[in-house]
Amino acid sequence: MPFTLATWNINSVRLREPIVLKLLQEEAPDVLCLQECKSPVDKIPTEGFAELGYKHMIARGQKGYNGVAILSRLPLEDVGDKDFAGLGHARHIAGRLENGVTIHNFYVPAGGDVPDREVNEKFGQKLDYLTEMRDWFHADKPGKSILVGDLNIAPREDDVWSHKQLLKVVSHTPIEVEHLAETQDAGGWVDITRQDIPEGQLYSWWSYRARDWDAADKGRRLDHVWATPDISNAGHSSRVLRDARGWEKPSDHAPVFATFDV
Is 107 one of the annotated active-site residues of the chain? Predict the structure, then answer.
């Protein structure tokens, strides 16, 4: 059963409901994973999504920050969540499709501005979150699974606009890249986006601070689609919908897509 999946840090699902609807109408992924919903679950505007055929939703929410949701045209079973690093944040949810594929939707902490856990508690929380993800995947090896989300790390040199200039900037520091690699290795996860697009600069996030984000093009690939080895060869047609960064009242992230023939 082929299905197309998209992941998007929406930066407030209520504020940006119009562009979520636009994406669902124009791109029609079977499954849309959202991060940073910034809404309690009962306040997520589900009516418009359901009218477009997205009648299935599982979510974890909080007022004003964090929050993850999976919208689906396909039946979806809620199979739980994990509170990594004991932060009490709504940052993970997992759903299982009828074909047995489990989809993990993650929103890894951004980590603040200073890449030093001694002076920046948020950076320490980010590293601890990744460490607990790693340990979980070691202890309970995932199978027939897809992991998506805003992982808040651009791991490769060509995942950022300037490797040299961002080496000391949170999201591309060596210690973060190392932690992400260990997490990926622990689950045997395959980076589907880079399996499909192995070469070249590729971004999914552009700062609001840039006066003209498109012209400056100082992006980072913070949003990821991974799959376990047993289904990684079924993944294809990866792309970043860059145009969405220029829609009205946009998120600073663009949606990332992949199709799986499972």
Answer: yes
State whether residue 54 is helix, strand or coil.
coil
Question: Active-site residue 253, yes or no?
Answer: yes
Superfamily of domain 2-261: Endonuclease/exonuclease/phosphatase (3.60.10.10)
Other beta carbons within 10 Å of 98: 10
**Sequential pLDDT tens for the chain (262 residues):** 799 999 999 999 999 999 999 999 999 999 999 999 999 999 999 999 999 999 999 999 999 999 999 999 999 999 999 999 999 999 999 999 999 999 999 999 999 999 999 999 999 999 999 999 999 999 999 999 999 999 999 999 999 999 999 999 999 999 999 999 999 999 999 999 999 999 999 999 999 999 999 999 999 999 999 999 999 999 999 999 999 999 999 999 999 999 999 9
**How far is 134 from 184, CA to CA, in rounded Å?**
7
168: tokens are 């000391």
pTM exceeds 0.90 for this model: yes
Check 107, 129, 172, 203 and give the catalytic one.
Answer: 107
**Residue ranges of domains in the chain:** 2-261
